Amino acid sequence: MARRLQAKELFTASEVARFCQVDLKTIHNWADRGEIRHFRTPGRHLRFRRVDVVDFLRKFGYPVPEVLRQGKPAVQIVDEDPVQLDALKKLLGQRFDVTGFVDPVDALIAIGGDPPDVVVLDVGGTKLDGLSCIARLKAAETTRHVRVVVYSAREDKRARALEAGASAFVTRPDAQKLTETIDALMGASS
User: Fold this and answer.
1) pTM for this one?
2) Averaged over 144-164, what is the pLDDT?
């Protein structure tokens, strides 16, 4: 996880209080009530992932500070079609730190070892049940924060993918919409 947990990926309660222009105790109260996703260090200090702070700020109408818009989010693409995978890696690689997998099992192993910010998944694959994978990623504490964007021509799976925990569903082949969706989820756009 060393690659992901850099200074601009994690924020202290004091920093979040500054973003919201509230007292530090307010942040602790919000965290205790579960209003903002967080975790605690072994020393019991609050830490907030960038994506969770962005979600919170947007939910309650706060502006997203520039410091939260910086950085290159890690995006993992899972697509059984190597031609499609290469095209997506090329497109998304201009904006994000991209890795790609044709084999969904390899992708799951990688996610467990170093969770990305976003997983782009086609639920129409044949090697693995994409809907079950989404649900499992959202159920596990270590991957709960990972955004899952379904990028698929299987429009009939939209509702089930969102119910399973996907953050968004983008209909293939709208790659520009995919880029915009990831930007929005990661706080790169307002």
Assistant:
1) 0.71
2) 91
